[in-house]
Amino acid sequence: YVISTLELMVAEDYMIVYLNGATPRRRMPGLGWMKKCYQMIDRRLRKNLKSFIIVHPSWFIRTILAVTRPFISSKFSSKIKYIDTLAELREVIPMVHIPDNIVK
User: Fold this and answer.
1) pTM of the full structure
2) How far apart are CA 33 and CA 39, in angstroms?
3) What angle do CA 28, 34, 40 make, to 5 degrees?
4) First to last CA, the chain
5) Rounded-to-integer distance, Cα 103 and Cα 44, Å
6) In this predicted model, what pLDDT tens digit does every residue of 54-99 receive, in sequence order?
7) What residues form DSSP beta bridges with 17?
8) For residue range 1-17, what is the model confidence (pLDDT) as tens digits?
9) Fewer CB within 10 Å, N or C, the chain?
């Protein structure tokens, strides 16, 4: 669903924001699923991806991405950004409205 929607919407550069938060590890997508999604993305979509932002990354996500980095293209790896707080996200993407009482 996400990929077919992206194909219809993306004409220029875009960002994907993954809000990890307090997601338990058993509910996180597995390596096989992530690899399959990456392979399903059309070359044009991969080329136009400006950054893949992971908000509140867990140690598990950081470890998985560090281990798989040799198998992922260097161009894609350079697009992965970790953001630890919603305040940082608001700085990176100013058009996203995050209420002050949630940021604190």
Assistant:
1) 0.79
2) 10
3) 145
4) 33
5) 35
6) 999 888 888 888 888 888 888 888 999 999 998 899 889 988 777 7
7) 53
8) 777 777 777 778 888 88
9) N
C-alpha distances in angstroms, 28 versus 12, 18, 19, 31, 100? 29, 11, 11, 10, 28
- Helix/strand/coil percent split, the chain, to 5: 55, 15, 30
Q: What token pair was written down for 25? A: 């590890």
- Domains of the chain by start residue, with CATH: 1-102 (3.40.525.10)
Closest to 50 in 3D by CA, of 1, 96, 92, 94: 92
Q: How many other CB atoms are found less than 10 A from the CB of residue 15?
A: 13
Alpha helices in the chain (DSSP H): 2-9, 31-40, 43-48, 59-68, 74-79, 86-92, 100-103
Distance CA 30, CA 1 (A): 18
